[in-house]
Amino acid sequence: MEPSTRESPSVVVLRWGHRERDKRLTAHVALTARALGASGLILADVRDDKVKDTIDMVTERWGGTFLFEMGKPWKQTVKEWKSKGGLVVHLTAYGENVETGDVLQRIKAAGKNVLVLVGCRKVPTEFFSEEVSDFNVAIGNQPHSECSSLAIFLYRFFGGKGLSKEFEGAKIRIVPQARGKKVVKA
Amino acid sequence: MEPSTRESPSVVVLRWGHRERDKRLTAHVALTARALGASGLILADVRDDKVKDTIDMVTERWGGTFLFEMGKPWKQTVKEWKSKGGLVVHLTAYGENVETGDVLQRIKAAGKNVLVLVGCRKVPTEFFSEEVSDFNVAIGNQPHSECSSLAIFLYRFFGGKGLSKEFEGAKIRIVPQARGKKVVKA
Q1: To which H or E segment does residue A114 belong?
Q2: Structure-model confidence comparison of residues B3 and B147, the more confident one
């Protein structure tokens, strides 16, 4: 995956620090990335076929072109992303608060594609440095969940459009209901 | 916990279906609830002291009055909530899409306190019924994460204010930084 050449900026998520015990949470992060408008997720440094299968099955069934890649070294991924003109945003509780500052406006004003770094646990200190991240962004400055942080970042970045996009090639889709469940074959 | 009598509506989260294997995700859901402005979380039907300790420790350290309760039967909780004039919102991928419809406006227009039902797994069918939920709300109609759904619902419900609130009695707090980490004792 690389910064695409489409007109409206796209987002790819890099999941750092995944371990065996993180299967479920990483799957939630990947599904969040997909549902909120990101183009793909890179599971950095390690492989996890079980998580990949889960995500690929969802994409196969529910549509779209979400790419799940594994095993790519994070440093190399970041370096390549930057060399191709993309921005790197590190989501961290310590960063500039998306609500009380203008960091999101500055990111959007750059008009570039974004690689979002999402850690599984305490990240290397270098994630905060200019060599790695162009921006450090906090979704509030309280400890909570990388899943929630990613969801809100993508929600704000795409202005909510991620939630109303159509997923091409979907085999099934949900028709929103006030009561009950309605699923149709697409 | 019950619908409070404060002027601006408050939100309590009811986590249904928690099991031993859900510890981590439930903790993420509870921390999300806290960080995004909810008043508390009820772990319905079961107890989990480990999760409670985790959440209480965060509240002790980072401040605020977030209440974590356990073991209350969900049916009784919903019944009491409604009898005291509160609204019940069920978060589900099958519900009215918060982005493409007016469900959130209708919820906010009611001006009542909200109990948000968040499932851990497939919920009982009755969650969709009028006896239980006043509204069924979807954060997009794609499968993703209850953590992300809750985060975005709370973000929209409170208009982002949850992310800038001060947590009273905090022992430490983060000062947002463009680079690095800054934590101060409060």
Answers
A1: strand A114-119
A2: B147
- What 8-state DSSP symbol labels residue A35? H
CA gap B42, B25 in Å, rounded: 14
Q: Which pTM was predicted? A: 0.96
Interface of A with B in 75-94 (CB under 8 A): 93-94
Q: Which is more confidently placed, B96 or A165? A: B96
Tell me the C-alpha distance between B54 and A74, whole Å.
30
Which of A36, A136, A141 is nearest residue B178 as measured by Cβ atoms?
A136
Whose tokens are 């299968």? That residue is A53
State yes or no: pLDDT of A1 exceeds 80: no
- Dump pLDDT digits (tens) for A88-124: 999 999 999 999 999 999 999 999 999 999 999 999 9
Rounded CA separation A101/A118 (Å): 20
A36 touches chain B (CB under 8 A): yes
What is the predicted pLDDT for the residue at A4? 55
* Alpha-carbon span B147 to A148, nearest angstrom: 6
* Separation CA A184–CA A80 (nearest Å): 41
Amino acid in position B89: V
Strand order in the sheet with B114-119: B67-72, B40-44, B11-16, B114-119, B87-97, B135-138
Nearest by Cα to A22 from A137, A109, A157, A120: A120
Q: How far apart are CA A183 and CA A173, in angstroms?
A: 6
Rounded to two decimals, the ipTM of the complex is 0.96
- The predicted pLDDT at position B21 comes to 94
**Cβ-defined contact of B163 to A136 (cutoff 8 Å):** no
**pLDDT at position B1:** 76
Query: Does A35 sit within 8 Å of B143, measured CB to CB?
Result: yes
